[in-house]
Design a protein that fits this description.
162 residues, mainly alpha, de novo design (two linked rop proteins), 2 domains, 3-stranded antiparallel sheet, 66% helix
Length: 162
């Protein structure tokens, strides 16, 4: 097998875990399971914290960087809450907040760049990560809302016989 002799799964493939992502191989098809948005938002939060340290220590910028820290770390926190939400509606609400926080973070990054607190290389790198998170969250929310609307329509069409 491609991945070596690791834990066999029920469909005679191989499963390994790497950085909290489950990777399965079955008949030369590789399937990755894990929560990409949770991982990306957590790594992004670490970058935001490090950027905050840089801005406060090296650039002596305290106001905008604090706003960036709050919104940039809130993205992942709300995703974590949403993933363990009590209902699909709760999940959608928390991920909607995450999307708003990601868009706010995007704003603060652009402002810091235009005010010359960030150089182009630094800005391009972190704004790309922020854009990616926005795209993923938008897609998740669109799919979740669509699925929830389908479930509601199905429930309305159920006939109860007494």
């Amino acid at each position: 097998m491609f991945w070596g002799n690791n834990k066999k799964n029920k469909i005679s493939g191989v499963t390994i875990k790497f950085r909290n992502v489950e990777i399965m191989e079955f008949k030369n098809i590789v399937i990755m399971k894990g929560n990409v948005i949770k991982d990306k938002s957590f790594e992004f939060a670490i970058r935001i914290v490090n950027l905050y340290k840089y801005l406060t220590d090296s650039k002596k910028e305290l106001t905008l960087s604090k706003q960036l820290l709050r919104s940039g770390t809130s993205i992942g926190a709300n995703i974590e809450e949403g993933v363990s939400g009590q209902s699909k509606k709760d999940f959608i609400a928390k991920l909607s907040i995450s999307l708003k926080e990601a868009k706010e973070t995007h704003y603060w990054l652009r402002l810091l760049y235009r005010c010359e607190y960030l150089d182009k290389k630094m800005f391009d790198s972190i704004i790309c990560d922020c854009d990616e998170i926005i795209v993923i969250l938008t897609s998740i929310l669109k799919t979740s809302r669509s699925n929830m609307n389908l479930e509601i329509k199905e429930l309305k069409n159920v006939k109860i016989n007494f």
